[in-house]
Amino acid sequence: MMEIDSVRVESSLWIGNKRYRAFLSGWYFSWTEIDKRNREKKTISVPVSEVIGVKEGQVEIQPQKKVEDTDLDFTLFYVKRGSKGNGIGAPRSLGRTQFCCPSRDVRDQWITQLRTALKTHSPSRPHRLLVFINPFGGKKRGKQIFHSLVAPLFELAGISSHVVVTERANQARDYILKKDLTGFDGVICVGGDGMFSELLHGVIGRTQQEAGISEHDPTAMLRPCDLHIGIIPAGSTDCVCFTTVGINDPVTSTLHIIIGDSQPLDVCSVHYQSTLVHYSVSMVGYGFYGDVLAESERHRWMGPLRYDYSGCMVYLCNRSYPGLVQYIPADSHISSPRDNTRCLSGCRVCSESKERLFPHFDSSSSLYSTTVSQYSSELEGEWVTVEGRFKCISLTCISSSCPRSPKGLSPSAHLADGTADLILVRETNPLGFLTYLHRHTNTQDQFDLPFVEVHRVKAVRFSLPPGEEEEEYEEGDREIQTSAERVLEDPEKLSGGNTAGHSQQRFSARKERGNVTTSRVKRRGFVCGPCCAKPRSISVWNCDGELLPHTEISCRVHGQLVRLFARGIEDSAVP
Ligand SMILES: CCCCCCCCCCCCC/C=C/[C@@H](O)[C@H](COP(=O)(O)O)NC(=O)CCCCC
Ligand SMILES: Nc1ncnc2c1ncn2[C@@H]1O[C@H](COP(=O)(O)OP(=O)(O)O)[C@@H](O)[C@H]1O
Ligand SMILES: [Ca+2]
């Protein structure tokens, strides 16, 4: 018999030849083993929010789909927490339990009740997703990963997806900027940090176009983006995935997407003069990391190993670069990069930041006030100046952990507190720098070295010493555009879409100020390795794996600008 009241559904069920008492109450579905003497034994509980699907009959989807349609059975699929993985967070897998009911009627009632609970308790699940696969990212396994591991889970969860296998760089970004996205609850990339960056630029650019906000203005308060981004790791570093999930595992990430987890993320905008150059989440790095990226681009054929090879080569070059770094410190009473804390799922520092970051947000209507100033007060504060020669300068909005460095560039950085950590590594001897790098891979504090300093900041700017200014760009002066403008002003690039006219009007204000002419550093192709002739005094910026065309940049953190289908790192010690 099945007992149903307004708060609880209950009946006897069988798993194999063991009898269980099953309950659905509130947010949980639980089943308790009952032995032959009617004593209760072990209970298993699954939060309804983590149920992936309920199917009639005995169903298997892994290793391949198999359905045995029997009248008395139903199969429950849910998120199962693993204990060991190759990351700092626990992997998730698909849990499956087949229940046998006393009658077909009871079976149908359980299926109805569970599906209704799922709808009630998981209102933020995506139903339709736009998926971009980079077939050349990482070990070139993007398509295989999607079709064998991700697509079957989406199907099981009733999620439909429109899949685009990219044929060129920036296709995903341009698609998001230009095409009709009505009906999509999120955009997903199957690839690495470069592919994530395309989605990031598309989503931020589109949101600002629609809000009539200029991305170029470094003081503008950018509009937070509603469209969620999901990452299926299939790249070389996969830093953003690792830092927000704790592991680079396609199945774990897929399950977070299905259950509609939501993790806000800080984003840094990088400007040259008064023009937007790029957005960054994981690393804006000058010196060592810039040189490694420049060198690695020549060895893309090596796949992810190109970074290890180039890292060794650049290390052997032992370069350092002069520069002037200025920053606005964040409030040191809230947190510090050396407070030995970790930003974990449900982080208090991040949740308390929301009110500070969005003082005009009306939570009752989920709207931003349009009457308030469009300019952020977050940039108020004194600039601090540091001058010298640096082995590397890195700015990261998040800890930037990855399999190479499980604790990351700045282990105590927060995902969504509206600040970034600025790490300055001054000129030192090769052994000192090796010690610094090596500490990224062990438990020793990489900031506890006399030539390293770290600051929690809201904004940064970098300039070259007098006499080292940027040279004129060979192709002549030309206007720098945001990704949104580039697409919108070149109708040949994409057909369709319906926002071009409006957005061109919105951006006309910037054009009225006149064309922004600019200069670029000449890039002669980075010559690295022990064979390097003589050291040059200017490095290049690595912005989330992209080489920037400018050296004298300014950066500003935009707190909680985008949302990922993730929930941060869950402490694997907590069961
Ligand atoms: C003696 C042992 C030395 C180990 C040094 C480890 C330091 C690792 C810090 C890693 C920071 C990673 C920041 C993320 C950068 C990515 O956005 C970028 C692009 O990734 P993808 O698109 O997936 O290719 N990756 C890099 O710039 C690679 C940096 C590698 C530095 C060794
Ligand atoms: N079809 C494609 N052909 C060439 N480049 C592409 C294609 N699709 C995406 N890209 C670009 O490839 C770069 C690297 O992709 P990513 O997925 O991050 O792999 P990896 O982590 O190996 O660098 C990204 O910057 C992206 O813009
Ligand atoms: Ca942050």
From TrEMBL:
<dbReference type="InterPro" id="IPR045363">
    <property type="entry name" value="CERK_C"/>
</dbReference>
<dbReference type="GO" id="GO:0006672">
    <property type="term" value="P:ceramide metabolic process"/>
</dbReference>
<dbReference type="InterPro" id="IPR050187">
    <property type="entry name" value="Lipid_Phosphate_FormReg"/>
</dbReference>
<dbReference type="Pfam" id="PF19280">
    <property type="entry name" value="CERK_C"/>
</dbReference>
<dbReference type="InterPro" id="IPR057465">
    <property type="entry name" value="CERK_PH"/>
</dbReference>
<dbReference type="Pfam" id="PF25382">
    <property type="entry name" value="PH_CERK"/>
</dbReference>
<dbReference type="GO" id="GO:0016020">
    <property type="term" value="C:membrane"/>
</dbReference>
<feature type="domain" description="DAGKc">
    <location>
        <begin position="124"/>
        <end position="274"/>
    </location>
</feature>
<dbReference type="InterPro" id="IPR016064">
    <property type="entry name" value="NAD/diacylglycerol_kinase_sf"/>
</dbReference>
<protein>
    <submittedName>
        <fullName>Ceramide kinase isoform X1</fullName>
    </submittedName>
</protein>
<feature type="region of interest" description="Disordered">
    <location>
        <begin position="488"/>
        <end position="516"/>
    </location>
</feature>
<dbReference type="GO" id="GO:0001729">
    <property type="term" value="F:ceramide kinase activity"/>
</dbReference>
<dbReference type="Pfam" id="PF00781">
    <property type="entry name" value="DAGK_cat"/>
</dbReference>
<dbReference type="InterPro" id="IPR017438">
    <property type="entry name" value="ATP-NAD_kinase_N"/>
</dbReference>
<keyword id="KW-0418">Kinase</keyword>
<dbReference type="InterPro" id="IPR001206">
    <property type="entry name" value="Diacylglycerol_kinase_cat_dom"/>
</dbReference>
<feature type="compositionally biased region" description="Polar residues">
    <location>
        <begin position="496"/>
        <end position="507"/>
    </location>
</feature>
<keyword id="KW-0808">Transferase</keyword>
